[in-house]
Each structure stands twice: as C-alpha cells, then as structure tokens.
Specification:
With about 120 residues, this protein is mostly beta strands. The chain has strands at about 20-25, 25-30, 35-45, 55-70, 75-80, 85, 90-110, 120.
C-alpha cells in the first residue's frame, strides 16, 4: 500500500498556497484538498468585502482581530475564537474591526474558482 505525501503548511506563510486578492485590503491564501479547502483570509483594519454567495458550505474561525459579520439580513460581532457557519447560497461578507482580522474559512466542497490565483470573490469578479 502506497503512503500519501504529507502536506504541511503554516498559517503565517503563503508558501504552498494559492493567493487571491478578494477586495481592497482583503486577501486570502488557499489550501485545497480533495473534498474541502482552507482559506486564510487577511483583512486590513476597517476593510470590507462585497456581499456575495456561493453554493459551497462555509465555516469560519476568527484567528485574530475582530469584525462585523453580515449574513443574509443579520449582522453580528465576531471576536477571536468565534466560529460561524454560512449555509450554501447565503449572502454574506465581513468588515474588519480597528485592528484588522485573520479568518480561517473552510469550504466544502472545494470552490473550483479558487483553484487558481485570481481577483474577487468569484470567477465572474
């Protein structure tokens, strides 16, 4: 039985990831797997993305900083350690707080448009 190659990455490095500029002051480094992908999103202080949606389920973890999360018709405050779920096709975005934010997003299944470098939240941006 063949062993799989170990894939080791670091949250503070873009090495081995796929870079994407989501919006002004907001970028991500993506680490895709076969059935899920991780996205390490860095948001400058007070930067905000555009409202968008996608068919993939998304989970988020606030690694550092703070933000306001907008999801469908709701908004809520997020702080370090908070975890949230975005169902498929829910409209959402985030605005970083005064110290910026670092968020770990988990997508399932893999977002195909994020398998190559690009700009924006979707293949059409």
């Amino acid at each position: 039985m063949a062993r799989s190659k170990i894939e080791l990455f670091n949250l503070d490095s873009e090495e081995g990831g796929i870079f994407r500029q989501l919006a002004e002051g907001m970028s991500t480094t993506i680490f895709p797997g076969e059935n899920a992908m991780l996205s390490v999103v860095r948001i400058d202080p007070h930067a905000m993305g555009e409202m968008h949606k996608h068919p993939e389920e998304q989970w988020g973890v606030m690694l550092s900083g703070s933000a306001t999360r907008y999801q469908d018709e709701e908004e809520f405050q997020i702080k370090k350690g908070d975890i949230w779920r975005t169902p498929p096709n829910a409209m959402h975005t985030m605005k970083a707080g005064p110290d910026g934010a670092v968020v770990l997003d988990i997508f399932s299944p893999v977002r195909k448009e994020y398998l190559s470098p690009g700009v924006g939240f979707s293949a059409t941006n």
